[in-house]
Design a protein that fits this description.
Helix content of chain B: 55-70%
Order of helices and strands of chain A: HHHHHHHHH
CATH topology of the largest domain in chain A: Arc Repressor Mutant, subunit A
Oligomer: heterodimer
Largest sheet of chain A: none
Radius of gyration of chain B: 42 Å
CATH class of the largest domain in chain A: Mainly Alpha
Strand content of chain B: 5-15%
Strand content of chain A: under 5%
Structural class of chain B: mainly alpha
Chain lengths: ~190, ~110
């Protein structure tokens, strides 16, 4: 959807239910996907998606396009609901990646390692256990293809902080992958 | 670089990521995170519910606006009457002050 069209649609949706339906159809799959990637449960993803759009509907009159795109605004609602969900259910992703020792970027052949199916599966498992904020960053960056500015709006951080977090996350992910790879090589020489 | 011995394993530490590695990791992440679509029934049902809620919200806003307009008209009317009375009283007061005193006895 063109940004200018979307702007008109948002203004229209503030008064007309039909227009909100159009906005919903445009974003529902992405919001669902975002929640599903976090919760790994269809039921929870549906519940959170539903709550995200209800909250968006209630607060749409307050939305103003002041540099923040509508998708960033909507994903911020989704993110806040997700944080509340984690807090209320007492569930938190457990692995803090800072605890993992970083490896040299020179080690091994990263292309070969990352392209293997086993590594991809490991990577998926790793993402599932990432701390909530880092998982959000990975999803928004790679699945939603958002800019650092938009991710900053969603996470409530500056663009610089997002860049730093992004770099730390990738470095840590790679470090853990290589660590597991080296453990595997060590055990099966 | 990694050194393997019988007793210990040493890994050269580093905290940087080369551009090529970053791009490769990004591509891999994209490959392992394909979009997951919601069920059509869920999407349709939620859309119906949201349209209903949006309609109710629009109706509530319209009712509130109608009420505010009505109150504005009634309030404005009442204030106009009060203002009119005050103006009339003031005019009367001014007229009485300017009128020559009447003789007490003819």
């Amino acid at each position: 959807m063109e940004r200018i069209d979307e702007k008109e649609l948002i203004e229209k949706a503030k008064h007309e239910p039909e227009a909100f339906g159009d906005l919903y159809r445009h974003y529902v799959e992405r919001i669902y996907n975002y929640h599903y990637r976090h919760t790994n449960s269809r039921e929870e993803a549906e519940d959170l998606t539903s709550r995200t759009f209800y909250r968006a509907l209630r607060n749409l009159h307050a939305y103003q396009d002041r540099g923040a795109t509508f998708q960033a605004w909507l994903f911020r609602i989704a993110h806040n609901l997700l944080v509340n969900h984690y807090r209320d259910s007492g569930r938190r992703p457990s692995i803090a990646l800072e605890d993992a020792p970083p490896l040299s970027a020179e080690y091994g052949n990263p292309e070969r390692e990352l392209e293997s199916e086993e590594t991809q599966s490991q990577l998926l498992d790793l993402i599932a256990t990432l701390p909530e904020e880092r998982k959000t960053l990975v999803i928004l960056k790679f699945v939603e293809q958002m800019s650092n500015t938009e991710i900053g709006i969603v996470l409530g951080k500056s663009e610089g902080a997002v860049k730093a977090l992004y770099h730390r996350t990738l470095t840590s992910l790679r470090a853990i992958l290589l660590m597991e790879q080296s453990n595997h090589d060590f055990q099966n020489p | 670089m990694i050194f393997k011995t019988r007793k210990a394993r040493y890994i050269t530490l580093g905290n940087t990521l080369q551009d090529g590695h970053e791009a490769m990791l990004a591509r891999t992440l994209l490959a392992v995170l394909p979009p997951v679509k919601p069920q059509t029934a869920f999407v349709t049902l939620l859309e119906q519910e949201l349209r209903q809620a949006a309609q109710q919200q629009a109706n509530a806003t319209r009712s509130l606006n109608t009420l505010a307009n009505a109150m504005g008209i009634v309030g404005g009317g009442a204030l106009s009457i009060v203002g009119g009375v005050l103006l009339w009283r003031h005019w009367q007061h001014q007229r009485d002050r300017k009128a020559p005193p009447k003789p007490v006895l003819a």
